Amino acid sequence: MNSAGYACLQDALQLSAFPLRQPARVQPVTRLERIGDTLAVPPAIAPAPDDLLGHVLFALKHEGINLTILAQALPRIPAQALEAELRKAPNGIYIRKACFLYEAFSGEELTQHSPVKGGFIPLFDPEQYLTMPGERNSRWRIEFNGIGTLAYCATVERTPQIMVLLQHDILARAQQFIQNLPSGMMDRAINWAYLSETQDSFAIEKESPSEDKSRRFIQLLRQAHERIPLSEDYLVTLQNATISNPYDMAAAFRHEQNHLASGLHGAAGVTYVPPAPDLCRELMEQLMALGNDAVKRIDPLIAAGIISFGFVFLHPFMDGNGRLSRFLIHQTLCRAGALENGLLLPVSVAMKREERLYLETLQEFSRPAREFWDVRWIDQGNMSFNFTGHPAIYRFWDATAGVRFTLEMAKRALEVELREETVFLQNYDKIVKAVDERYDVRGSDLANLVMMCLSQNGTVSKHRRKQYKYSVQEEVFDYIEQVTQTMLRDQKEEKEGTKIADL
């Protein structure tokens, strides 16, 4: 079975690229159609196997933009082939795109026999991709509308899931939700969000932060509202503030190779290898520039997903990258002006609850990237890392999964985590008030018992009854349970009634 388009280029030129989700294959069909995980191509429209430019043009027309493959394939196509095709169709959309990218990736200028005419053509189809207003190239009349530059670019497909999530207008709903709360309740909900975000961000890294470390991280989260632009010095300051071990505190982006491991011994335990230090530092400059620019030009949550996942894939520090990547979601939203009144969406809380999905999203990039590294065990604590791929795999990456996950977690942070905590606080206040009106109970004891009862679905355990028996009357335990259970039952019935009404 002959391949076509990107699959053919990848096979014929042995390019370094992630596996295609839907490779084009020549099959006995009468029209181009998507069958399962294959783009079936009729023999009549398939380029000849050795026609590399034909496969580039086919891919640009039918498969969208894959900069990882194009960056490697186009410089290997003779300039004369592109110039000959250009003479046939000087204003053709796809040959113009090919010529524009050829010059960008090869550094060589093609001969134009006549000026290109017509309107500007977007490189990325806005109906297929989320795009960003970009620079116009008057020579080829192409608008580069990718999210980034031709030195570093993230692509995000307009999938049905992403479009539905964007329609929820999560950030506007979050602002409205917080503003509609009573002042005292709003402050408590936000304080809970900061504390929980801190605890769960560390928990994802399998760490239990000290009180001092928690306090410092909360301060960082609050400082994000100052809208400080991304820079190496700023990120170093953030990294230092989240790290306890002085030997792990960075002075700059890393100058040595980093890697992630699963706990297995030797090379087999290495699960991800980020780009080499020189490439990492170059791409971090691009990522920071994108982060500072994108917040003004695309949806803040899309920008947040790209910056967060882009950062963790580059892994610019030897430690602390995971926590900082999640912090950057909040920081990006703040710089975009999307979070006011000190609001924080506790995305790390949502991520902790969906930890498996978070790991799977990270692995969509980390697993195929690992295949381009030859890792060899030398001796205890020492390994050699040899990159066998092409820088394009880190330079041009598919951020679709990361953006979708970020949107999902932001939605969950609002509709589940923040709302549930607000309901919890409201219930707490009502129960405390009800008990206070009937019994005289020490404030700290009552607070603890009510929180425990709510957390245990309306039950004060035998252990807690025994613990507080010398300071709290027995009937108080029963009354707390009675009030709590009645309240939870009424809320459940109301919720079920609402669901039935919605049907």
Mind explaining what this structure looks like?
The protein has helices at 5-13, 52-62, 67-73, 79-88, 93-106, 160-167, 170-179, 183-204, 211-223, 232-242, 277-294, 300-314, 321-335, 347-353, 355-370, 392-395, 400-438, 443-455, 462-467, 474-502, and strands at residues 3-4, 24-26, 33-35, 38-41, 121-122, 135-137, 142-144, 147-148, 153-155, 260-261, 270-272, 373-379, 382-387, 396-398. The chain is elongated. A hairpin with an 8-residue loop joins strand 10 and strand 11. The model has no long low-confidence stretch (mean pLDDT 93). The chain is 55% helix and 9% strand. By secondary structure, it is an alpha/beta fold. It folds into 3 domains: 3-145, no CATH class; 160-203 and 259-278 and 286-316 and 325-419, no CATH class; 439-502, no CATH class. The two termini are 50 Å apart.
Give the number of DSSP strands. Answer: 14
Spatial strand sequence of the major β-sheet: 1-2-4-3
Mean pLDDT: 93
Q: How many structural domains in the coordinates? A: 3
Rg of Cα set:
28 Å
Helix content: 55-70%
Instruction: Please describe the biggest sheet, giving its number of strands, its sense, and whether it closes into a barrel.
Output: 4 strands, mixed
Give me the number of helical elements: 20
The end-to-end span amounts to: 50 Å
Estimate what percentage of residues fall within beta strands. 5-15%
Output the structural class: alpha/beta
Low-confidence stretches: none
- Broad shape: elongated
